[in-house]
Amino acid sequence: MCLVSPTEGAVARILLVEDNEMLVAMFQRVLEREGYDVVVAVSGVEMMKLLYSSAPDLIVLDVGLPDVDGRDLLVSLKRDVRTKDVPVIVWSGRDKDSERRIAINLGATDYIQKGPPSLLLPRIEAILRRIPESDLAEARKSIAPK
């Protein structure tokens, strides 16, 4: 069930930040089949390049990227006035309560351990449902290049 973004009737756009090509292919296929617009970044540098041009409604962020710690990216996202309100799901192969607490304390909307798409999809839908459409529209406008 894809939630519609309030901008021009477009589907919700998800920025998937993951360096594992196999996971990217699997999750991108599932998310697109559900009707989401998926933008992929395989590194922190690429995420920052794509962030403002893609204006995502939600970010799925791997913490174990090859070039930068995902937690540092999360801090940057939450400090930036243009992206502070964009929901971020941190997903990781690390399943420790301490990791989960750190991510939530840094501003993550949710934290899940990497697993099948059936774990991620309901979380995405739940987060997007909780955000008023006017807030999503405003967030996308503030991120998009002028």
Brief rundown of the structure:
Helices cover 47% and strands 16% of the residues. It is α/β, with parallel strands linked by helices and 146 residues long.
Sheet with the most strands, sense and barrel status:
5 strands, parallel
CATH superfamily: Response regulator
**Euclidean distance between termini CA atoms:** 31 Å
Low-confidence stretches: 4-8
How would you write the strand order of the largest sheet?
2-1-3-4-5
- Tell me the domain tally: 1
Q: What is the CATH architecture annotation? A: 3-Layer(aba) Sandwich
Mean of residue pLDDT values:
87
* Number of extended strands: 5
Instruction: Tell me the β content.
Output: 15-25%
Element-by-element helix/strand order = EHEHEHEHEHH
Number of helices: 6
Structural notes for this entry:
The protein has 146 residues and is of the alpha/beta class. The chain has one domain (13-137): Response regulator (Rossmann fold, 3-Layer(aba) Sandwich), CATH 3.40.50. The chain has helices at residues 21-33, 44-54, 70-79, 97-105, 117-130, 133-143, and strands at residues 13-17, 37-41, 58-62, 88-92, 110-113. Strand 1, helix 1 (21-33) and strand 2 (37-41) form a beta-alpha-beta unit. The protein starts with 12 loop residues before the first strand and ends with a helix.
